[in-house]
Amino acid sequence: MEQVSFPPLSSVVICGGTHGNEMTGVYLVREMQKQKVDKVGSVSINAVMSNPRAVEACTRYTETDLNRCFTDALLSSPITDSTPYEVRRAQELNAQLGPKGSNKAVDMLIDLHNTTSNMGLCLIFDSIDYVTLHIFKYLQSKIPSVPVRSLLLEKPPSEAYSLDSVGKHSFSIEVGPQPNGVVRADIFNIVKEAVDHTIGFLQEFNRGGTFEGGEVEAFTVVKSVDYPRDPMTGEITAAIHPQLQDNDFKLLKRGDPMFLSFTGETVKYEGEELYPLFVNECAYYEKKIAFHLAQKLTHKFPSIRVKKD
Amino acid sequence: MSSYNNTARLTEARRVAIFGGTHGNEMSGVTLVNLWMKNSDEIQRKGVEAKPFITNPKAVEKCTRYVDTDLNRAFTPENLSAPGGDELPYEVQRAQEINRVFGPKGSPDAYDVIFDLHNTTSNMGCTLILESSKDHFNLQMMNYIKKAIAPASCLVLLNEHPLLKYSTSRSVAKHPVGLEVGPQPQGVLRSNIFEAMRVILKHALDFIELFNEGMEFPSCTVEVFRVSERIDYPRDANGNIIAMVHPNLQDCDWEPLNPGDPMFQTFDGKTIHYQGSGTVYPTFINEAAYYEKQQAFVTTRRETLVASAIRKA
């Protein structure tokens, strides 16, 4: 593949508290604001608390999930008295950090999240972007202490619903397992390391360094599985089976246990071989998702370099 | 039986309640109680009336710890006698209702035993919480449970500290028993945690059945961890936390913490060490609900209690 060049990546925004009870991002953004971090070499850095009301209440959201409010439709919807707080906040963030899709948008937006699932360090991308794929490969080589994986959502820009879709080159860093409302030092340290390495990458890129192309494996969600539920009440009737619990990214094969009902029966998986992720994520009970199933695909990408004027 | 201890004759424990949802986002208890309210076969025992009960339905509905105030701190004498009806905070109203149905607290009409089911984000494994070192019935029950689940472990936390103890939902009963199982995130149901709690309750009910049938339980010793001190996070002048539980202490509930051991790590990477005078056994390390209660963990000291022999009167 031929080398691709990009303009310098000189403005980076680190967002935390997009979900107010995912504490790594909340505390990292607070610390960065306290240290008044604003420039590291050629990279200007801004730390933003995305959902201050939810952070204050230590809850995922106050009226609606902020991280689903960044579709083109919601960003342009008229604001009335009944507009939920998070839809208003999304438009504010889009004005401050975007507008999404325009030349004024920040070069890079990194949104920090936690999950109760055992997903290690997972980068989430809306679409294939050679810059962020290079950062993924770079972080894999720099962080040996936890598994570093990626999830590709493959959403066209207009449908991309998350905060990170506002930046020109963006991704979310999703790290678990961590309970809501808790900050674990080991996870905080890993995320800080990932952010520091990303900034290091950008500095080297801006300096004119070439990053060799290659290939990476990324996961793409194919479908989701809900909990078994009582048909009358909708209440769940089984828990994730102990053999699936904490085994995110481990291939799930036909016949493998999936759920253990409260009356002791095992429910087995009967589909094609796929990789489970977001297994037993707290926030997904209300979205009727026990886990996602993904395929693993290899993506080739070219070497990249900063555009010389 | 034993030559120097008299056997304590205690009234039979006929009325037993199992509370779930005292904190609405602690899912093992919510799920078990809902299950048993639909089908109580599993909790039936001869000579025992076992009543499963959701204590905080509004909090369960919202999957939140509490609506107005923590129900598990609400059973103070002031709250239980407060006038005001619907004007009172929701949980205070609930406390009064629970006290009417399962109490009154401190009276002969109160339920004999209440099991209150809880989860924690801390790595505490299975823990039984005892409120009085002189409750020989509970001590014998806890001894029975520990032996029944061995080699799996079930530790006993004793909270009798005059300043740190609090007025729990279960305190309405003559013999209050807290079951705390972790680690489990709030709002999440883990199969292994759910099943562990279920097994503990099974043995607890077996014990009560045997006791009510007249079995004598000889004097025994029970190792407990007695709550000693509450340790808060380091905070700045505005009350914001400035450090996290240190990676060396995280998940090390019940392991010895010695003076000089790492305790906290600041956000900018510095270690803060434990400065106490002796070895302590920390627990409730990094419990989500305790950030607002100014508690990073509690220290405990190991103690051996002696339980008298007991038999039904």
UniProtKB/TrEMBL annotation, chain A:
Keywords: Cell membrane, Cytoplasm, Hydrolase, Membrane, Metal-binding, Zinc
GO cellular component: apical plasma membrane; cytosol
InterPro entries xrefs: AspA/AstE_fam (IPR050178), Aspartoacylase (IPR016708), AstE_AspA_cat (IPR055438), Aste_AspA_hybrid_dom (IPR007036)
Binding residues for Zn(2+): 19, 22, 113
Reaction equations catalysed: an N-acyl-aromatic L-alpha-amino acid + H2O = an aromatic L-alpha-amino acid + a carboxylate; an N-acetyl-L-cysteine-S-conjugate + H2O = an S-substituted L-cysteine + acetate
Membrane topology listed for this record: Peripheral membrane protein
EC number: 3.5.1.114
Domain of life of the native organism: Eukaryota
CDD domains: M14_ASPA
Bound cofactor: record note: Binds 1 zinc ion per subunit.
Names of the cofactor(s): Zn(2+)
Single GO term (MF): hydrolase activity, acting on ester bonds
Protein name stated in the entry: N-acyl-aromatic-L-amino acid amidohydrolase
Automatic annotation (TrEMBL), chain B:
Name of the featured protein: Aspartoacylase
Residue intervals passing through the bilayer: none
Cofactor binding description: Binds 1 zinc ion per subunit.
Chain positions recorded as Zn(2+) binding sites: 23, 26, 118
Highest taxon, organism lineage: Eukaryota
Keyword set, alphabetical order: Cytoplasm, Hydrolase, Metal-binding, Nucleus, Zinc
Native source organism of the sequence: Stegastes partitus (bicolor damselfish)
Residues annotated as domain AstE/AspA barrel-sandwich hybrid: 221-301
Cellular component terms per the entry's GO annotation: cytosol; nucleus
Succinylglutamate desuccinylase/Aspartoacylase catalytic domain residues: 13-208
Primary enzyme class: hydrolase
Binding residues for N-acetyl-L-aspartate: 65, 180, 290
A UniProt-annotated Pfam family: AstE_AspA_hybrid
Hydrolase is among the record's keywords: yes
Active site (catalytic residues): 180
Location in the cell: Cytoplasm; Nucleus
Coiled coil: none
Family to which this protein belongs: Belongs to the AspA/AstE family. Aspartoacylase subfamily.
